[in-house]
Amino acid sequence: MTPRLLPLLLLLLARPPAAQPAPPTCYSRMLALSREITADFQRLQATEASEPCVRYLPRLYLDIHNYCVLAKLRDFVASPQCWRVAQVDALKDKVRKLYTIMNSFCRRDLVFLSDDCNALEYPIPVTTVPPDPQRQDSAAQTRDRTRGH
């Protein structure tokens, strides 16, 4: 090996390997599809003026960790409303797919953390803004002053 090739070889070996994304797992596929379905349903509700039957569809907020989601998926697919609306048909196909994945292919990968059916009807909004540390510090200082610490 020539002395000029040695540094080049070392440089190539020292470089970290290209990151290979992990293949989707059953769980990641279920989670992604449930989020996609929820977003599609919300878009469908936004176009309610053009399709009045949408307001009669069962609510479709999905939490794959809630055991009641299986019944929610079955109810949505079985609902007779909007049976000739292309957007609803496409959404029902996705819902069927998620149900099949959850109930057959990925059954062992899924852990239900809740069986609160009400939570699927009236979901608690999730805050996506991280807390401001300065605000927390000033709130703690105010709280300490009022307690006399």
Would you spell out the secondary-structure blueprint of this structure?
Blueprint: H1 5-14, H2 26-46, H3 69-78, H4 86-105, H5 117-121, H6 133-147
Helix pairs in contact: 2-4, 3-4
Judged by helices, strands and strand pairing, the structural class is mainly alpha
Radius of gyration: 25 Å
State the total count of DSSP E strands: 0
Give the end-to-end Cα distance, rounded to a whole number of Å.
Answer: 73 Å
SSE run: HHHHHH
Beta content comes to: under 5%
Separate helix tally: 6
Provide the low-confidence segments as ranges.
none
Global morphology: elongated
Q: What average pLDDT do the residues reach?
A: 76
Overall helicity: 40-55%
Largest sheet: number of strands, sense, barrel closure: none
Structural write-up:
The protein has 149 residues and is an all-alpha fold. It has six helices and no strands.
Quick overview:
The protein is an all-alpha fold and 149 residues long.
List the keywords.
149 residues; mainly alpha; 0% strand
